[in-house]
Amino acid sequence: MKYVVTGCDGKLGGRVCENMLKEVDPQDLIFTCPFLDRLDPERKSRWEALGVAVRQANYDNPEEMTKAFAGADRIYVVSAVTIGEIRVQQHKNVVDAAIAAGVKHIVYTSFLGASDPKYAHVYVTPDHTATEAYIRKRAAETGITYTFMQDNLYLENYLTTSVMLALMSGNKWYTTAGEGKATFVPKDDVARFATALLLGRGENNKTYHACGCESLAQRDLCNMVSDLSGIKIEYCPVNKDEFFEYLDSMHIPRTATGDYSRSPVPWCGNDMVTNEYSIAEGLMDVPSDDIERVTGKKPMTARELAKSYSYIWENHVTNWKDIK
User: Fold this and answer.
1) How far apart are CA 281 and CA 285, in angstroms?
2) 175 and 309: one domain?
3) What is the C-alpha R_g of the chain?
4) Residues with pLDDT less than 70, the chain
């Protein structure tokens, strides 16, 4: 059995790569990324020395992907970055290339609510809804199987960039989340889950929810960081217009194709406002033990994870590129 992990240069895909190295012979692994020359050379050299095939597979280049995926049986597809029609087409490209290369099973990183119309107004959701529908269509046509892993909001983001923005804003934590709660999920646990699904430890043609083990409000996270850091951070719930104005003031573009040259985070305003407002709406407070059932281990708690990110306030980090 041969496996592909896409997005090996990213924080989620990279975690899955390291997990897979502990599970299978490195010679049975293909790690891909969109720009091979941007992959950390030390990481690339280490993987290749172990016997991993490290290849370029740009989601905009179907022919390149088909060659990169050649010989693989199962693939883990990390979702693309640019939200909107561009991403939907890129996802279609990678699915078609995987099928053309002979891949028999696709594990796709989706988003919570992608199969539920109640979530359609959340900025990132329609892309995942369209991709899931396309994978089902191609599965019906070709006989391939698939697994959808619908991720909740990543807990790390609220322990890194949210904290960073608060410290850059006079120790004020702005959000549209209000007093809503969510089962925020750590990326390490999502990566463990993705690894298990890629290895075939889940059921074919099934949708799983990747959610954390706690139901928490952002106010809870804000208070916890204040306690751990010794810095009094004020929780400031605001409405959508006020949050947009705040993000504008931080040079965060409103759309995914906007100007990020001065933005301290890699996301756009539409993404942040609607994601966080979905918490206020109760859409992200979804209980699920799928991670524990498939992997045999519960996700980490927020307090356990927060200790790994104390450097954010200790080093006064002001840009997402400095987040480890």
Assistant:
1) 9
2) yes
3) 19
4) none
Per the document, the length of the chain is: 324
Tally of CB atoms within 10 A around 38: 10
Bridge partners, 207 (sequence order): 148
Q: Which amino acid is at 243?
A: F
Shared-domain flag, residues 142 and 240: no
* 105 and 173 inside one domain: no
Question: Can you point out the beta strands (E) in the chain?
Answer: 3-5, 29-33, 53-56, 74-77, 105-111, 145-151, 172-175, 181-182, 206-210, 216-217, 234-237
* Tens-digit pLDDT profile for residues 260-293: 999 999 999 999 999 999 999 999 999 999 999 9
> Are 94 and 167 in the same domain?
no
**What distance in Å separates the CA atoms of residue 125 and residue 242, rounded to the nearest whole number?**
23
Residues 159 and 145 in one domain: no
Proportion of the chain in helix, strand, coil states, percent, rounded to 5: 45, 15, 40
Tokens 């608060």 appear where? 166
Same domain, 308 and 159: yes
DSSP string, 34-92: S-GGGS-HHHHHHHHHHT-EEEE--TT-HHHHHHHTTT-SEEEEPPPSSTTHHHHHHHH
Same domain, 31 and 129: yes
The per-residue pLDDT for 231 is: 97
Dihedral (C-alpha) 276, 278, 279, 281: value to the nearest 10 degrees?
Answer: 140
Structure tokens at 266: 């890699």
Question: What's the pTM value of the predicted model, to 2 decimals?
Answer: 0.94
Q: Do the beta carbons of residue 267 and residue 254 sit within 8 Å?
A: no
Nearest of 177, 272, 285, 275 to residue 222 by alpha carbon: 177
The string of DSSP letters for 173-201 reads EEES-TT-EE--B-HHHHHHHHHHHHTT-
Range of the domain at 105: 3-151
**Together in a domain, 111 and 242:** no
Burial 229-253 (b: 16+ CB within 10 A, else e): beeebebbbbeeeebbebbeeeebb
